[in-house]
Amino acid sequence: MSLAKRIIPCLDVKNGQTVKGTHFIHLRQAGDPVELGQKYSEENADELVFLDITASHEGRKTFTDVVKRVAAKISIPFTVGGGINELSDIDKMLNAGADKVSINSAAIRNPLLINDVAHHFGSQVCIVAIDAKLEKDGEWYCYLNGGRIKTERKLFDWASEVADRGAGEILFTSMDHDGVKHGFANDALARLSTTLPIPIIASGGAGSMEDFRDTFVSGKSDAALAASVFHYNEISILELKQYLKSEGINVRI
């Protein structure tokens, strides 16, 4: 039996409130992160991700008080990201109740941070998030600061380096698919999943239960992360898991 596939709701948080956009812009309110986190924990989500989406752009640290309040209400693994630049930031998040941390912009700017996190806290704590867009030259390029700044880093090269440096998982978000609800970037996900030795979390594009099935089957993803379909009650986590099980996909119910 293969490892169970994971369903992961994501709380994109700005100014203490959960928001959701399309292609990383046009943000709208989606609710209180503490209430949403508790709801997803009770609905048997496998994990919860909390991203302080403007922390890096605004040059500040993650809002620790909100992280503490969410952590106090949930009983599932909890990942926190946004504005994490050094080992002391990770210490703070773990002490606030996080089980894992997600680093993105800081990892691209200082790749040694991945080695340091894996060495000090263990690979299982270190998730590297990669936001990338498919450009006209047919290459996927990575972006910084919540999708605001393009880099010359190419997705597959960077993902391979991330794994070599000791990251425990990669959270890959296709900026082209984000919020569009037409399915995940399964071709890119399948390439990541089949060439790298660490789990790949799919993000960007969930609009239907079939989209989740397809990313597990075609994209070979280990986990699927989504936001708006859960926040706005378009898809129930329990019903999604029952559907996936009926499709022969191993999930925890």
Report what the structure shows.
This protein has helices at 33-42, 55-58, 64-71, 87-96, 105-109, 112-121, 155-164, 186-195, 209-217, 228-231, 237-246, and strands at residues 6-14, 17-22, 25-31, 48-52, 78-81, 100-103, 126-134, 140-144, 149-154, 169-174, 200-203, 223-226. It is of the alpha/beta class and 253 residues long. The chain is globular, with a radius of gyration of 16 Å.
Q: The biggest beta sheet, please?
A: 8 strands, parallel, barrel
Strand content: 25-35%
Structural class: alpha/beta
- CA-CA gap between termini: 16 Å
Alpha-carbon Rg, integer? 16 Å
Enumerate the strands of the largest sheet in spatial order, edge to edge or round the barrel.
1-4-5-6-7-10-11-12
Quaternary structure annotation: single chain
